[in-house]
Amino acid sequence: MDIAHKDSTTLMRRFNPGDALFALALIGGALFALRQYGDFMDIYDKAILLLTVPALAAIGVVAWKPFRLFLAVSAGLAVFSLSLYGGDLARAEQAFFLKYLISSQTAIMWMSALFFIATGAYLLGLAARSDFAEATGTALTWCAVTMGTTGLLVRWYESYLIGTDVGHIPISNLYEVFVLFSLITGLLYLYYEGVYATRRMGAFVLTVISAAVAFLLWYTFSREAHEIQPLIPALQSYWMKVHVPANFVGYGAFALAAMIGVADLLVRNGILISRLPPAKVLEDVMYKAIAIGFAFFTIATILGALWAAEAWGTYWQWDPKETWAFIVWLNYATWLHIRLTKGLRGALLSWWAVIGLLVTAFAFVGVNMFLSGLHSYGSL
Amino acid sequence: MRPRSTSRALYELLSSMRFAISLLTVLGISSIIGTVIKQNEPYNNYLSQFGPFWFPVFEKLGLYSVYNSFWFLTILGFLVLSTSACIVRQTRPMLKDMRGFREHAREASLASFAHHARIPLLQPRTEAREALLAYLQRTGFAVRCDERDSSVLLAAKQGSLTRVGYFLAHGAIVLICVGGLLDGNLPLKLRMALGGKQVTSGNQLIADIGPESRLGLDNWSFRGNVFIPEGKSANTAVVNVQDGILLQDLPFTVSLRKFHLEHYESGMPKRFASDIVLTDPATGQSIEKTIEVNKPFEFAGVMMYQASFEDGGSRMRMLAHDLRPGHGTSAMPLEAAVGDSLKLASQGLDHSLELGSFRAFNIENMATDAPESEAGALTRLEKHLGSGARSPTRKDMQNVGPSIQFKLRDSAGQAREYQNFMQPILQDGAWYLLTGMRDSPSAPFRFMRIPMDGEGRPDSWFEIRSVLLDTSRHAELARRFTATALPASTAGAVRGRLEETTRRTLELFALGGFDGLGKFIESTIPAGERDKAADVFIKILEGCAWEAWNLARSAAGAPAPTPSPTHARLLRDTLNATNDSLHYGAPVYLQLTGFDEVRATVLQVTRSPGKPIVYLGSLLLVLGVFAMLYIRERRLFILLKDSGEALIALGSNRKSMDVDERFEQHRDAIAALLTPPARP
């Protein structure tokens, strides 16, 4: 991504009818949502909804064209699901498509299955040196993120069907954010796969997604965590809509960077050299992922501070989650300093990115498991 | 010259990357400590956790308030110092670098760039120069030309703003730290040290606290809590400092009209809100406002937040049922407010009642756990398909009504804690009053179930129990039981033996409950016959309970009970509860009969002068990070030589793959420009 100096003529040349249609659909969708659901939003919710349009447009038009089709299909499936529901939750049991395809739980189950198969395909591609298997992996990953996005969108709607006072965006507890994490990591991976035109990193990144999905399934089947819960007062805020997604772009990118780090370490030790991209490429992807993760993690932490100031009366109070977010931030700040200012390259940075994932995972899940604090609504 | 070089060396160390990275690492590791040890707990908790040896050591190290400790603030101070030194050190060279075009670069140095290429120049110099200037402008470069003897150098650059990003991001760190310092407890510490303020203990009336523990209206940075019961007002906040408190005067009076507490069906809290009235003492004007979680309000420079809520002294009406054997079934009315400590001294009691808390409702899952059927994997999966709304395990959330929690302390100072529900609760098909008891605050409550009689009252239980446990009535009970249990024709000796056994059974039960009987059976009856013996004893007890009920009813002038399954169940429950009551540990059972609830809100009030500085710093940080990571500085040099050759070199402040790509693009585009199209 090179946002500073795009040749303006090339940008215009690349703006095609598909882009226009995409932008129009985004605007139309936002206006429809405002008209249909505006009563459930305060002024900030509306502002966030409207700002989503240029943000998604920027991703789809400028940065990453395939994003347009993905979003269109996900939204289309979600709208289809909504129309099947027709305002009645019990339809989830009766309508075939809802029960077996696009009700929220079913869609998330599909996402889980597709991510597992995609991981298998990528691993097979790596082991059997099969380009076809890897292409299958890509297709399956696209299907998985589509089903996951549809699932979350439908879950959003279902929460309002339970009761208008219960309804909320589905990024409020550990179950929901694990779905979000899988989605965002998957999307980030697909982006880099496209930009670097190589599918060879898939086996590594999809492995970490599969681990997240495995946790998600355990959480569903043994803890019944998938049940939609209403929001406690502290979480009833528009800030959630910006704080949580920004955070998970950070977590997702750090997870991706760590897995690329693993691939890089293998290559540096002479393993799978013929099959994996050269260290130079891996190093570049790792840097790009950490850079975008760091930028978004910075934003997320600041948004969290703004929210904390409103909900708890202080923007920073060294709550365990805040402190660990700070530690994660310090960790990647140091990583970037070493790479950019010291100009260091090589195995050390890869090792560091891998260990960084452990720190990130602790901040994400470990704090909820082992430490108590204000962020305790995601407990295990 | 020596001191100067030392300070120079110090400055260089402070501003060095190596120092900064070490600092970041130390900061990260030391902030972990505060997440492992719970911060700002009451000191007693630490004392019991770490023991008398380590407690003072950890206190000296500031581990109970790591982020306010001297050493942690020192590390942060060094971070500010190091970042500032780094900025100062970098300013001059960076500005120079930003402004300069390096248009005097020599050919030899250009040729040593990692990205450079020589291409033929087939055009006149001036013509090529114009074409290149247009190209560079179009692709976003600023250019400066340097005419030389037999050549011209076009020195172009773009993305110099990335250097501004450096200043923004690093300046932001300093701003955020300074702002955070203003809002931390350092101003308070300074005030206490310089202004002679002293913390005081929280166990006294606010009016009794003297000026040496009060902070005035001129205090510009504080964080405190205001406690206001419904219908009352307050104009001071309590600031917690270490193990004591300080009072903070507020520039207004805040009174609470009503506190709203709403719940979802599941019992999860839904809304906490305070309807308050704020009055300015100077003007006498007041405004009404509702403060909720996530909806704070600022008044007279003070931010107010809904922090929590408590009981504001709800009044409870209770009946104290005497449980001591031989005291009959007297019940004494009592009235107390939550938070009160009350002496129970009548009728030979020597106890004190500490009424701890009151809950207006309790929402419990009343579903009876159906046994998990042996379902296959497919059915299990199917249960988790569909909407996210339904729960595969059935839940039945019900409000089981109000409850109180209190402590009873005996004359020896020994206290037990109790939890009593006001309304009977349906369990296993019958209604019970539940009362829980525990010996220590960490233990779970053990519940005694007092059965309700046909009129829906607990009175029958008190009556039967009182007769059963009264040793002076055991002989009468035994006689009546024997009379109904044996036919009239039974021989006198047999009759006498049964009567004796019954009396003995009652005595054992009154003393030790089922346990007492069990021990008796184990010590006197051979192992093979114990089960049979236990059955006999239970039969005897049930029969006696029936006779006790008859006695109680006739004493009250009520008709005798008739045998029925409901009554049999009541008798069994009565025996169980009577047995439990022997381990209840209290001389009275407090039945909650009525209440007037008064809630209180706790508002957090703050003045945080550093907030705008921190927010400005945060904004700059985001701008700076994006500028540093996503604006790429590139320098493109094109040396046009009269000898018919052009030298292109691309420099970048970062080495990354897209520099290679960019170089190839520029090289090819420029090569095309410099080579006139071949004539067809």
UniProtKB/TrEMBL annotation, chain A:
GO terms for cellular component: plasma membrane. Coiled coil: none annotated. Keywords: Cytochrome c-type biogenesis, Membrane, Transmembrane, Transmembrane helix. Pfam families: Cytochrom_C_asm (PF01578). The chain crosses the membrane at residues 20-37, 43-62, 69-87, 107-127, 139-157, 169-191, 203-221, 248-267, 287-309, 324-341, 348-371. One of its GO terms (molecular function) is heme binding. One of its GO terms (biological process) is cytochrome complex assembly. It is a multi-pass membrane protein. Residues 172-375 form the Cytochrome c assembly protein domain. It is found in: Membrane. NCBIfam families: cytochr_II_ccsB. This is C-type cytochrome biogenesis protein CcsB. The gene is ccsB.
UniProtKB/TrEMBL annotation, chain B:
It is a multi-pass membrane protein. Keywords: Cytochrome c-type biogenesis, Membrane, Transmembrane, Transmembrane helix. Pfam families: ResB. InterPro entries: Cyt_c_bgen_Ccs1/CcsB/ResB, ResB-like_domain. Residues 17-664 form the ResB-like domain. Its main location: membrane. GO terms for biological process: cytochrome complex assembly. GO terms for cellular component: membrane. It comes from the Bacteria. The chain crosses the membrane at residues 20-37, 70-88, 164-182, 613-631. It is found in: Membrane. This is Cytochrome c biogenesis protein ResB.
